[in-house]
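Example 280.
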Amino acid sequence: MNIGGFVSASGGIDQAFHRAYTNEFLVPMFFIGSPQSWNLPVLNDVQIGQIQKAKKETGITQSYAHALYLANLASPEKSITDKAVKALTTTMQNGEKIGLSGVIFHLGSHKGTSTEEGLKRVAQGMRLVLNASPGQTHLIMENSVAQKDKVGGNFQEIGYVLDLLDHDPRATVCLDTCHTFASGYDYKDSDSLSMLLTEVDKYIGFDRLECLHVNDSQGALDSHIDRHANFGEGNITPEGFRALLLHPNIIDKPMIMEIPGVNGEGPSIEDKKILLSILK
Ligand SMILES: [Zn+2]
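Predicted structure in complex with zinc ion:
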């Protein structure tokens, strides 16, 4: 299986690759710059060289960046969506320079307008970002917990954005197990799992499902609470994880852990072991 995890990029992105390697993560995900700051760095040639070296040393070929949390492409305020487009473009351009597989982002909130309008703005913003960052790096929509005005809380909504983008091959999707569960998709038995998989297949297509965020959920089913938990400490059953993650259309996807971690310092090799033991 292709299990990875969120890793700190403190000391440089090259260090994120080394941290992943130490923890036996095949796929690292990291922030490029501070997740709380609009002031995003542009990677320079020295940094790019260090990152290429780290990639070679670790043998890691697939990697993802998580976009700034502040970015809200669904907002009705142009100044907000402009900022989000700029931030995502910078991250995508950095990604191109280092051979990043993709940049994962949350679709954001429509702020009291409507889901449809919010999704249209997401598609418009993504178009601008993709045009400004030509290359190979994918721009990846992550499903939300469908809390309040948040868009992208089900695969029909995300599929609508893909339609608006004429299924641009660089626009793909990340399924977060905590978010799907908290937004109301249960997968503890084959009936509920088939509902989730049918929607993914119908609205997204398994070829466009790029990767998963694999997290347990502190919030209950349909609670719309976005709180990630360590495996076995949340409400997703081992049967649920097995049913979803071992499914033939899912099993080979990158699975990136974004959990507090049993040692409290983010996901580590210990969490990977627990996940693998659940999946046995
Ligand atoms: Zn996630």
